[in-house]
Amino acid sequence: MKTRNIGIYEYQERFSDLKQDKLPSSMQLPTATNEALLLRILLGQINLKKNATSGLIRPRTNYLRLPYVPTGSTTYSAIGDIFSSIDNKVNIIDENNDIDNYFTQNRRNHDVHEKVLFEISSYFVNQQQAPITAFAHLYRCLEYMSYSFPMLYAAKSKNYKGTFTDLKKFFSGDTAGELKFFHKFLQVLFEDEETTLKYEFGINLLLSNPLDCFERECRAIYKSFPYAIENGILQIKFENMLEFFITTRNRFFHMLVGQGQENFSSIDYDIGEYFKSINPYVLNWLSIIIQKISVYGFYSSLIGS
Length: 305
Fold this sequence. Notes:
three-stranded antiparallel beta sheet; 8 strands
């Protein structure tokens, strides 16, 4: 079994040696780049453990699809999900070699991917027993992405005039703060993917108590974006997930009681169950963005080669 240690985590290969040998070398343990390892975890192809005495975590979900899906058995074909946003004008002659060239060239961004990898690994370790902690790690992941990913996008662009225009969009208007900056960035990143932006997450609310109290708090808190709760399903579009994510974090972790702010404060339901319900969908949303940046970088590298 091939492994790689990064910080407090050990990552373990799920593929047999024969199946792993079919992967681009930059995606194989123990030498996989941080970006490649991150994407393979989001495909459900890598096991991890926190330290020598902890239990093994076995992610078994492909988060690079909308909606996310259980992977079942690990298959090499799932690698195609990473680079599924294919520009038909780009000619891929040798897929494995082209993927190797991209991941190798992109090692200069290994610090960014290492931080995102750590936060998502921490999510997997905590989701079942400590979902509020898992949510906090997802939010930390968002904060790493909120500034670095727009810069990665700009650095990969071959259209310098277009990139300058995009950066002006990111900074235009009342965009103080990295998360508002990130909102502008997402509008540009997915501007040609209306289907993705309008995709509606259907979040199954696994709350033990009746939803009445929870729904009252949602009506008071989630005022700035459209959502719906029907038959225990919370419905939110992809384009509204950033605001949903930020608002949920602020109204639970930042109480501001003295300012009369509406918050998640009821003692009549288990807020941990709510976080456990929403976390996989938040990760799905983040994963699609992570994939999009890798896809953009990959095809930019082909055009520039």
